[in-house]
Fold this sequence. Notes:
This protein is mainly alpha-helical. It contains 11 helices and no strands.
Amino acid sequence: MNTKDKIIHTSILLFNENGERAITTNHIASNLGMSPGNLYYHFKNKEDIIRHIFALYRDHLNTHFKPINKDDDAFNHLTAYLDSLFELMWRYHFFYDNLGDILSRDADLKQAYIDFQLELLEQVRKIILGLRDSEMIAIDEQDVIDLAHTLKLTVSFWTPYIKARRPSGTLAEQDIYHGILKVLTLFRAYSTDKSIDKMNLLREKYTELAQQALGPVDLSGLKFVQSRGN
Length: 230
């Protein structure tokens, strides 16, 4: 990784471990063994770093959550969606934890977030329609947008919900798998006779993964995507 990507990568690690509010650019620079001036050569301030992290978050969603085409294997798509969702929720959980505060400090980021959420809602709606057209789920047209909202709400607020209920305020890998199971439950409620066995296999998969995950893991093991800016 080049210096700019190292700064972003380290910032994500520190934000997730300590909470975004507790970390300053001085903490990030010190962790990297560089001077604050060197960090400011690449980023104007912490908000600038967060904007670049948001760009990675946005790119992840755009890349991994494409609508299902008519001839696609819908079950494989759903499995890939859930696997990618795990990586998203684990890598960027600091963003969900402190979303309101982060957006309140940066008007440009808030507008970018609002605009993207509208795009994402439509993206999720198309995924639901793709699962319906592939007979993985049976859902009335008027319920599609409500399911899309509920899926987004579950993903966005699962990690702060867990951390708020825990005295330590920490998050473990198994917590994310439990969140994926909640997302899967929403889909299973609409499953068809054709898909229920496959849905149950997915439930078994993520239940087993949750049981295997004994605690927090090193985020540096996850694949890192080079920053592309805003």
